[in-house]
Amino acid sequence: MWINFDDAEPSPGDLAAIEAEWPQIEADLAELDAEIRAIYAADRGGPTELDWRRTRRSAARVTRTATRAARPTADLRPAA
Known about the structure:
Layout: H1 12-42, H2 49-70
């Protein structure tokens, strides 16, 4: 069976799954951004204390969101 993806719309279930995963996606993107900033700063004299703080906070956020998602009865509402 051929599926034309140009005309396909995400189902309500697909949208709910994306919504449920969004906090983890955001956390991963924030961590990537912090790592990029640290690498960029390394070429310009080294990361500042703020760069290190961003990296630590983003890593902690990834851990928190992964822990929430791994709970058997994970709350699917967005984290505040």
